[in-house]
């Protein structure tokens, strides 16, 4: 009724003032409570000091045991028994830049090699946000429920530089991480993709020796790690979402060509129909690519990683591929080729590392670059001088 008599701006001002005074009073009252210890519920009596839970001698023992490096024999026997603690520590050695650690890691690897090679290695790629981690968790749980052991490794050469997570990134795989049949190892940090990829490959060997049946490798999907992952897996799966073109999804033609399957994720809710349409389109497009050496015709499937839908179909498809590629010997032949590739890649990496870590080279390189900038020398002569350094 009053609003008929008083104009609106005045009413708004009055309303504002009332709220302000109310909030101000509340603040004053709560400050009063906080400072007055006798009335505050937050007041605590001083506690009685508690005795130490571990004795000093046992704490020291734990420290020594932690810092003590197990021998190569100990490492190998525990890894072969599937001991996750030793597996993790061995991977840490593999990832170490310390020469002694690397030597030890190489000895462990050599001893584990005869026990490796029995798993199925699957690479998962796709742009950030497409649902790779969610898919791996869902597929991983599907496999462990069948009593299969799953190891998940990630290749992320940028993780040391770009620590921030990408939109809704689900890196932790909360459910799979607590699964006794699963082993999840986050990406080793490293600046060079070559280095990180080599470490991941070596970690695969250790995981296989530890009895993991399926090794899943997640790429960051920014267009560089795919080739490296492709060269270390048996099956390469490209995850996509419907509705965005290849350009928008940052997928290069080469990556589609490498893929053994395209799985359209997030086929749920309103997106279900679009995913089915995309499936038909991709299927048509895939037939335009040249046939694969493996004799396998790449498949297109849909799934919802979040709702665990279509995961069984993906598993059936992967098994079909394995049956075919083992029957026509492509599986073994490809692993052999991959070994050769990694032999050469490791030599290349080692040569480069040795070269750039040489202090003489470091000094001379700075000088040559300065001269080069002044236009005094040619890059070829500079390179020759550097390469000739002993
Ligand atoms: N609706 C729907 N969302 C999903 C699905 N899979 C993943 N997501 C969501 O997409 C976001 C990115 O997922 P993530 O697994 O981190 O993608 P990644 O960057 O490729 O590893 C997260 O918010 C997920 O919850 C799915 O099948 N359906
Ligand atoms: Mg991820």
Q: Can you describe what's shown?
A:
- The chain is of the alpha/beta class.
- Among the domains are: 29 residues; 192 residues, 3-Layer(aba) Sandwich (Rossmann fold); 48 residues, no CATH class.
- The protein has 16 helices and 7 strands.
- The protein has a 7-stranded parallel sheet with strand order 3-2-4-1-5-6-7, with helices on both faces.
- Helix 5 crosses helix 6.
- The N terminus is likely disordered.
- The structure holds guanosine-5'-diphosphate (GDP) and magnesium ion.
- Magnesium ion binds next to helix 7.
Summarize the structure.
By secondary structure, this protein is α/β, with parallel strands linked by helices. 54% of the residues lie in helices and 10% in strands. The protein is globular.
What are the SSEs and their pairings?
Layout: H1 2-5, H2 8-35, H3 56-67, H4 72-80, H5 84-95, H6 99-112, E1 120-125, H7 132-145, E2 150-155, H8 174-177, E3 182-185, H9 193-209, E4 214-219, H10 225-230, E5 235-241, H11 253-258, E6 261-265, H12 272-286, E7 299-302, H13 311-327, H14 330-357, H15 359-373, H16 379-388
Parallel strand pairs: 1-4, 1-5, 2-3, 2-4, 5-6, 6-7
Helix pairs in contact: 4-5, 4-6, 5-6, 5-9, 15-16
The site of guanosine-5'-diphosphate has 18 residues, from helix 7.
The number of strands is 7
What CATH calls the topology of the domain at 116-187 and 211-330 is: Rossmann fold
Terminal CA distance reads 97 Å
Ligands in the model, by name, code or SMILES, are:
guanosine-5'-diphosphate, magnesium ion
What spatial order of strands do you see in the largest sheet?
Answer: 3-2-4-1-5-6-7
Strand content: 5-15%
Provide the CATH superfamily of the domain at 116-187 and 211-330.
P-loop containing nucleotide triphosphate hydrolases
Shape: globular
CATH class of the domain at 116-187 and 211-330: Alpha Beta
């Amino acid at each position: 009724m009053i609003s008929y008599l008083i104009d609106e701006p005045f009413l708004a001002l009055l309303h504002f003032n009332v709220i302000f005074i109310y909030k101000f009073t509340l603040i004053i009252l709560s400050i009063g409570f906080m400072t007055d210890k006798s009335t505050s519920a937050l007041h605590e009596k001083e506690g009685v000091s508690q005795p130490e839970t571990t004795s000093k001698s046992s704490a020291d023992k734990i420290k020594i045991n932690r810092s003590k490096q197990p021998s190569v024999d100990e490492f190998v026997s525990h890894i072969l028994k599937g001991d996750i603690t030793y597996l993790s520590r061995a991977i840490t050695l593999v990832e170490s830049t310390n020469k002694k650690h690397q030597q030890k890691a190489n000895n462990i690897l050599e001893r584990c090699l005869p026990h490796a090679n029995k798993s199925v290695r699957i690479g998962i790629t796709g742009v950030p946000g497409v649902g790779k981690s969610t898919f791996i968790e869902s597929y991983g749980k599907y496999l462990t429920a069948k009593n299969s052991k799953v190891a998940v490794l990630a290749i992320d050469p940028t993780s040391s530089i770009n620590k921030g997570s990408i939109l809704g990134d689900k890196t932790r795989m909360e459910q799979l991480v607590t699964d006794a049949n699963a082993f999840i190892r986050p990406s080793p940090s490293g600046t060079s993709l070559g280095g990180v990829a080599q470490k991941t490959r070596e970690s695969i060997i250790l995981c296989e020796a530890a009895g993991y049946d399926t090794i899943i490798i997640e790429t960051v999907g920014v267009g560089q790690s795919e080739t490296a992952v492709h060269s270390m897996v048996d099956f390469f799966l490209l995850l996509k979402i419907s509705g965005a073109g290849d350009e928008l999804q940052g997928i290069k033609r080469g990556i589609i060509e490498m893929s053994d399957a395209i799985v359209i994720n997030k086929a749920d809710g309103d997106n279900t129909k679009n995913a089915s349409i995309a499936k038909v389109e991709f299927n048509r497009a895939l037939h335009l690519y040249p046939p694969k050496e493996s004799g396998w015709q790449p498949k297109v499937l849909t799934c919802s990683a979040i709702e665990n839908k279509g995961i069984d179909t993906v598993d059936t498809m992967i098994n079909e591929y394995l049956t075919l590629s083992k029957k026509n010997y492509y599986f073994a032949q490809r692993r052999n080729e991959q070994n050769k590739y990694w032999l050469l890649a490791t030599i290349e990496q080692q040569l480069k590392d040795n070269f750039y870590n040489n202090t003489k080279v470091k000094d001379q390189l700075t000088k040559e670059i300065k001269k080069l900038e002044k236009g005094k020398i040619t890059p070829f002569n500079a390179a020759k001088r550097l390469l000739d350094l002993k």
